[in-house]
Amino acid sequence: MKKFQxxxxxxxxxxxxxxxFPFVDGIEKLVQAGISAVIQPSGSKNDKEIIKxxxxxxxxxxxxxxxxxxx
Length: 71
Hints:
Helix content is 27%, strand content 20%. It contains two helices and three strands, in the order βαβαβ.
């Protein structure tokens, strides 16, 4: 993994996405990388599984309910 800046153990790292996460594996990779909170719009049929994973890993998960693009 490339490092773009020095991060200490006390730093909180957050992630934001303008698209929902369709599967748990995306959130899982972020958590493995040290993310402690994620904001995303929601809308996946797997939102319940993603919420469950976030709760199990003590990851803050915020749903913005705003999508910036549709496909």
